[in-house]
Design brief:
The structure is a single chain. This protein is α/β, with parallel strands linked by helices and 126 residues long. It contains four helices and six strands; from the N terminus they run ββααββαββα. It has a six-stranded mixed β-sheet. It is globular and about 40 Å long.
Length: 126
């Protein structure tokens, strides 16, 4: 079992953090990278020609797509069913994976980028 922390950055500033409590591994039929890559591929042209919608809106669009696909996605600091606290995230079992999705500021024409690593790697632990 694996979980994922997906941070959406706008010009280097964290704007939203989503968490997949299961199937957070990068690859495989339920992995994170395929749906995330497809989403970015589908939106890149619009972001280059019309400008970025901003990281918060981009995270909302991705979360909606995850929900539509039947995958559980939670929002760090969110309320209700979709919310998850930092303490709850620290108790998640299995391998953790960290994804960083960088987009330009609202209206900026920039290609989105994704970096992926294990949670321990992103925290600088060995």
């Amino acid at each position: 079992m694996a979980y994922a922390v997906i941070q959406f950055l706008e010009a280097g500033e964290r704007m939203a953090t989503l968490c997949r409590t299961e199937n957070g591994q990068p690859t495989g039929p339920d992995g994170v990278m395929d749906p995330l890559s497809i989403f970015i591929e589908e939106t890149s042209h619009q972001m280059i020609t019309q400008g970025s919608p901003g990281a918060l809106y981009f995270a909302q669009l991705f979360a909606a797509r995850e929900i539509e696909a039947g995958r559980e996605i939670r929002v760090l600091g969110g309320a209700g069913e979709m919310g998850i606290t930092g303490d709850e995230m620290e108790t998640l079992a299995g391998q953790g994976y960290y994804y960083e999705v960088s987009v330009g500021r609202e209206g900026e024409r920039a290609v989105p980028q994704v970096l992926a690593s294990g949670i321990e790697e992103s925290l600088g632990k060995s």
